[in-house]
Structures
1.
Amino acid sequence: MKVVIIEDEKLAAESLQEMILKHRPGAEMAPVLPSVEEAVEWFQLNTLPDLIFCDIHLSDGISFEIFRQITIKCPIIFTTAYNQYAIQAFQVNSVDYLLKPVKEAELVKAIRKYEDLQKNNFQDEMENLKHMLQTADSSFNPSRKTRFMVKSGQSIKSVSSEDAAYFLAEEGVVFLITFDNGRFIINYTLEQLEEQLDPAIFFRANRQLLVHIKAVNQVKPYFKGRLQLQIAPNGPEDQVVSSSKASSFKQWLDM
């Protein structure tokens, strides 16, 4: 069995490889593909594997973009930190959908499911599943992002979006700051976060800041119709809402 892992978190990829080889020691592991661009290039130059493990959010975008550019007919097991893409996943040859951190028992169950499908004509089974999903929910609309997988020392942990006080962009790097003052690098732009998070809870104050409504401690009038914010915990100083956004910001805070 030849396996490809598409994953931009090194520790998550290594953990996945270890579990796969533990339970299927004869598996041939291809190089880990950390981005949409590298995955597309690899599939253009190599024959398809028997099975793909694929994260959904990669360093340069959503992994579904790979399958829009390349025809993939082999089975896929998606691994992701949140569950709003379940139906899209099953529409691109997915045999299972595992939430991070991936549990060993769930991984083994998914591999067995893949092996059973192989015995029972995978392509026919997938076509039937896709038809059922399209019939059941042709108007599917993903829910908002509810958690993030972040690196903490040598491990990976889950942080709920409810615990994120604000997201701060500094010199091309985006940090997630929690209400208990945790600080974690995440592989998202503020633009991506703005689209994925609940707009009733998070507001894009300026080019550097996306803030949780409960993290806004104080709002003061500033020059030329702008607003100056005091953010907790230990929020960066001189965070300003532009005059063009001031009105919508006040409405968001119900001021």
Note: Helices lie at 10-23, 36-45, 64-69, 86-90, 104-119, 122-136, 190-196, 243-253.
2.
Amino acid sequence: MNVYLLQVINGIGVGMLYFLLAVGLSIVFGLLRFVNFAHGAFYLLGAYFCFQAIQWGMDFWLALAVVPLLVGACAWVVEKVVLRHVYAQAHEFHILITVGLALVLQELVIVIWGPIGDNVAAPASLQGVVMWGSFIYPKYRLFVIGFTAVFSLLLWYVLEGTRLGSAVRAGSESTEMVSMLGINVFRMFSLVFALGAATAALAGVLAAPIRGVEPFMGVEALGIAFVIVVVGGMGSFFGALVGGLLIGVVQSVMSTLWPEGARLMIYVAMAAVLLLRPHGLMGRG
């Protein structure tokens, strides 16, 4: 099988994980105009909670369902207790408090699990490879592509076909108008923030068997998430999807063509998009 075609498929899988990571950040910013630098920490918690659940003997499939809900619940509490009080402040306050929250969560991970990373085994049913003629590919990575595609469709339906989604889209234009319609804006803020954290945690759970867990993976994830949001366009669901796939494929292909510069090319791609589309590929001008 052509190595570049294999890398493109790898890039699609990585890009779908990047989409899950970035879409929550994009939605939260689009609705709340809130710069959340703690977003990568929820990805970190998702990965480590999955690791701990498997260490306790929990089935991976159960962890896949429970961990994002648990992290989402934690984010819901944090939003109500801490973040709600700074929404009306300048973005500098948003940055300071969420960076502080991210550092606290990162240090807690180091205190509980130590500074050294660890591996997470893929479920037994997804270990090994799939062979179709000359096509050979790991089962787990194929599962990640399929699962994230289905989840993306469900998330799209929630945002486009439900009352919550209508309120979120209207709120991204004018929270005052939504409030006048009788919708509890603060409750909607809490739900959206929890949903964003849960999708980041889901990305962490799915990524754990691929890359393992280590305490600083949240910082790396946050940087990539911001790149994707900038490339795709602030507040855009499809922008996060397109941006995630673009960055994933660029990184994967460049890891073959120029391994040392693969990460650099992520930022080159971002710069190229911004030169052509300053508001992102799917952003509103």
Note: DSSP finds eleven helices and two strands in the chain.
